[in-house]
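Project outcomes to date are best conveyed with an example. Our students and postdoctoral researchers have been running inverse folding experiments weekly, and each run begins with a structure described purely in tokens. The record below, which covers 112 residues, was selected by the lab manager from last quarter's runs and is presented without edits.
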């Protein structure tokens, strides 16, 4: 049986996209207020990349939380400071038991 290595004490907000048709095209729109959930959050530091003479920093992290079927790859999560992370890939339902969920997130920030 899988047991999380860290307690779920970090508050995060889940933003589930809604689709709207604007001028004939489908657009994803995120709500202003997200749903609170608690998780463990482990970062791996940032990766610096230079593209077209612009330096960008890509922060990646692993998030583990209680199972929620509404957390999908098109959602975004934000921490208490308001930093937004996109979910990479499909969240993993650990051992297919509908108890814990694990997924990787990425935040991209850049400068001049």
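After processing, the design step wrote out the following sequence:
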């Amino acid at each position: 049986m899988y047991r999380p290595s860290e307690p779920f004490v970090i508050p995060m907000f889940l933003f589930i996209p809604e689709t709207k048709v604007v001028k004939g095209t489908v657009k994803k729109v995120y709500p202003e207020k997200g749903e609170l959930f608690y998780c463990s959050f482990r970062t791996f530091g940032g990766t610096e990349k230079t593209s077209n003479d612009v330096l960008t920093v890509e922060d990646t992290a692993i998030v583990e939380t209680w199972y929620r079927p509404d957390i999908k790859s098109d959602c975004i999560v934000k921490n208490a400071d308001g930093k937004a992370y996109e979910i990479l890939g499909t969240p993993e339902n650990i051992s297919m038991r509908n108890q814990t969920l694990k997924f990787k997130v990425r935040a991209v920030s850049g400068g001049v």
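The beta strands are 10-15, 18-22, 25-29, 35-51, 54-66, 76-79, 84-93, 100-110. The chain has a mean pLDDT of 89. The training component of this project remains on track.
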